[in-house]
Design goal:
The complex is a heterotrimer. Chain A is 72% helix and 0% strand. Chain A has eight helices and no strands. In chain A, helix 7 runs antiparallel to helix 8. The longest helix of chain A is centred in the last third of the chain and has 20 residues. By secondary structure, chain B is mostly helical. Chain B contains 23 helices and seven strands. In chain B, helix 17 links the parallel strand 3 and strand 4. The mean pLDDT of chain B is 92. By secondary structure, chain C is mostly helical. Chain C has a single domain, classed as Up-down Bundle (Fumarate Reductase Cytochrome B subunit). In chain C, 76% of the residues lie in helices and 0% in strands. In chain C, helix 4 packs antiparallel against helix 6. The longest helix of chain C is centred in the N-terminal third of the chain and has 32 residues. Classes of the chains: A mainly alpha, B mainly alpha, C mainly alpha. Chains in contact: A-B, B-C.
Chain lengths: 151, 424, 215
Amino acid sequence: MNTISSDMEFRQALEALSLEQQRYVGARFVTNVLSLSEDARLQQVVEAATSEGDLESAFKIAKRASLEAHTRCGTEGDWNDQAGYFVARGVEAIVEPQIRTAGKNPAWKAAMQCRMARTCLASESDEDTHDLETGAQYQLLNDYLEKVNNP
Amino acid sequence: MSKPSIKKGIDFIKAQIDAPVASFFSSCVHCGLCAEACLFYTESGDPKYTPINKVEPMRRIWEQEYTMLGKLKSALGLTKPVDEETFKKWETMVYDGCSLCGRCSVVCPVGNDISGMVRKIREGFAAAGYAPPDLIGATQRAVEIGSPMGVKLPAVKAQLRHLEEDTGLKVTLDEKGAEYMVLLSSMEIMNFPEYLEAIARIMKQAGKTWTIASTAFEATNSGIQIGVSDLAKVIVSRIVDAAEELGVKTVISPECGHAYTAVRWEGPNLIGRPYKFEVKHILEVLDEFTKAGLIRTEGMEESRLTYHDPCQIARKGGIVEEPRRLLNQIASNFVEMSDAGAMNWCCSGGGGVSANERAEEIKLTAFNRKKSQLDALKVDTLVTACANCRLTLEEGLEHNGMDIPVVGLTEMVAEHLVEEESVS
Amino acid sequence: MEVNELLIWARGPAFNMALAIFVFGMLLRLFEIISLGRKSDLSAARDSGLSGGLRTIFSRSLPRKTVFAREPLRILNGYILHIGLFVVIFFYRPHIELLGLDLAGLSSSVIDAVTVITILSLFAALLMRLYSPVLQHISTVGDYLAWLITLLPLITGYMAYHHLMLDYTQMLAYHILSVELLLVLAPFTKLTHMFSFVLARWYQGYLAGRRGVES
């Protein structure tokens, strides 16, 4: 079993998954950064993504959450809060309605947003935590693929 | 910003009055057509938002200071004064109820540039201390920190690292002799980092050298929004100094409405001399690259989509055909809203309105105009080229339960970019 | 004063004085505008300010579709009013003779009809001003004064021509006096727009032309 170690492999592996599977994997990515958001609604949405819950209303909630979390033009930005914005966008990505996601890769989108969320925390300092998130995502995907291939 | 006072406010307004302003006030016949072009009036029905009414305090000052008749009337006690009450009463009309969209200027039968006058009158209101606190904060941050939203260099660096790790594209800060210097808006840095990635990929394909200046990465200029030219000048100067120091040929203004106006048109007048470099909007650059065959796109968006023209870019920037040429290349079902192009209706959030929490209600009311345009068209996607328009539109759509995704044009182009390894 | 004396005075010295005040007043207003000057635009021009300015002087005479759709009557009435005034002043033979112009006049019955239409359009404008919330919000005494001094020459002229109410000589005197009233007051009301609009359109058009933007 090839373990994923580059973004190209990561993206291709995600693309090979079905929409449902992507939602599931995406949810794992998001759960990994969920603590960076203070919005309790996001947990529900993540659950809806993985349990065949009402995706439509989950999407509406996710959209509202990310809109509320964004930094308004001209207001003082707080990168810790902004991490929450990207988490919300990651959550949005995994419950986006099928029509909108046609041809796109929701799990990849979610993964990027989650990495951005982690990057936010590093924005105030010169630390580089980006790789940590990427690594974690590779691991999550590897674990998932293993389970799927070796039930 | 030094201590505000009513006297300062009045003096600043006086200083803004020039021959054009005098010709405008002399020509206004109170026909009221400007109101019919203003979304704050058309959607609220409140006549106080009539554009020419927004600058009434300036008219009074003009009449009393610069006309014999006005001086005579003043002496006879026949004029209304401009005092603290005036500033208090007019503040929300001048800031909350005007996005500097410029439609009024274009429809006035006698040729008055009313939105230009609102921009001017803001100088007085800010000097008098009658500007929205949110805007005052943004301007202070812009001057002290370098970004109205407090985005500092480490944040930009973090974004660049994120970019490099995700795409393998390296961006060098402060690269001398690069052809292009890219400016970003805090909104993009904070909310739409995909924009930076899109630029990086496009520039690589086009084979152009580019850089970001560590001392001047911010394109937006809240000095312009609030109306404090001194601060607007400080903010623009950073860009000019960096660009000229690095010897770049062109500075690229991002997908932000007023940043283009600030850097392209107002900048040289603020610093008192022409630039030694060109300023182009990212859409102009993309259009050029496409025309020259430097970048190619493949595939088409098939959803029914339309383009929202940001006021500062289309009506006030003159960039109307470029986005349409780009969209026609990558969208097979592109339909236009009524009044699209140079006469497009504002998203309702420009000119500092979206940064002003107090204006939330009137802004959402004004958004109904955009809602009507969209309801009539029934599209599945809305494309635009201004980060502020984007969020204002998203908020308005969400508020009205309309499920239409809003996408940035540069990102959309990047999504369809043909990326090939260069043949060496 | 006897009617004939009034008429002679109205036609003679009074007219000269009124015209002088009109010319001097308008020149003063224009001077007050132009003398303020304006800073040069230092941004890199995309296109010609000159052609933008000139074009805008003419193009603003036509309305934008989007505004016309919202207020067609108000806009159409504005055209009727201005064109009507122009025709009645410059295409009526007695006026043409008076002004020493080289124009072929229109028949009196045409002028008569146009006068009625113009008077009606003025009243329509007044009603619109009284009943529109926007116009009520921005209207001033000056608007009503300008309206009145524009109306009086039309009404008195009509009455004189039709020998209505008063004796012809008297009516004619009042007609000429009403024109003189208009001439004397015009520079001190919004009627300055009749000349300053060229400047306003030019200034905005010039800047827009330089920037290559809509105007």
